[in-house]
User: Fold this.
Amino acid sequence: MTASNLSDEHAECYSKGSQENSGASRWRVKSLWIYPVKSCRGVELSEGTVISTGMQYDRQFSFARLQGGFPASSTETDAEAKIEWKFITQRERPQLAQVKTEIWIPDPLSPDYSPDHPNVQSEGVLIFKFPIEDGLWGWMSNQFVRMGGRAFERSFQVPYNPTQKQIKDAGYETEKMIIWKDSPLSLLIASTSPSQNNPVMKELSRFLNISSSLGLFRVSDERELYRCAPRKEQLGYQSRVGFQDAYPLHLLNLASVRDVGKRLIKGSPTLSALQFRCNILITGPEAYAEDDWKSIKIGESEYYVCCRTARCILPNVNQITGVRDKTEPYQTLRSYRAIDPGAGKNACLGMQMVPAEEECTIKVGDFIEVLETGEHYYLKQ
Assistant:
């Protein structure tokens, strides 16, 4: 995409929605996003494929750090000392917002295309870029930024979905990675461990201010989803996720974001919809109209609206600079959006969804139709 569909998100026309859903007031998809690496910079799309786990390519990777104590004695193993990989997010490392990601997908029409090329066999590559802060290049980058330029960046790439042969040849290992209350087996693609000796990962670890081992994991075992999600008997399949926090898809209404922004403490940074890291941003409905949606149609496909999105401090992070505000919008949201008894004192904004089909297409501009409304009760993990 050359220009973001969010470039005009603060235009006055998006401040108020409409109860009508016809003619010029049709409710539409405004912007689409995927986050190939959990908690890193998102990628905006004009259209995309929705699969059973959400948007294709969404949250298929996650960074994790090694945590736990050292063995207490020479006879105690690492497992007994509970040394474990645990996922990291912007909640504790807001700098992750400055880690950019790209996915390069093989093009069969390219003159250089070959089914035997490693990048084709791995279904593409994942590209990382992050600001250089070390050494002379870091100093030069800082000077360049002060003069209005862009920061110098370090980049590296990994196979998007390595084959079994590529896994074996590269020596990738499968490890348990803690994500909330789950510990799915995940593929360790890169790390700062001596066995991999990856200097770029070590530089990234310093950028993120992580002193323990840093690892990059890819989804290996998808996690089955129950909680507020429809069951297999209703869907035809059991809903599941990759490295999403809870549900496959997150929908957000721009009018709701604009209403929150108007209520922030005076002097607070301007609130962007980017801070809520949704997959599907819509325009048209009045603020918070989405709170009681139970099922909707986007384009030609149906979606189950499972529950509201309970909010933490992550939206306080500016998704461009990686700087976290001390209070907003978290403080304002908690003052009036603790609306779901199941979520307790947690504020809610946005809706969590499951696709009714295992594969469908979604596009910017798709119309939205509400099929069913009703009560929601958030179920915690």
Observations:
- The mean pLDDT is 92.
- Residues 69 and 159 are 32 Å apart (CA to CA).
- The longest strand covers residues 301-310.
- DSSP finds seven helices and 21 strands in the chain.
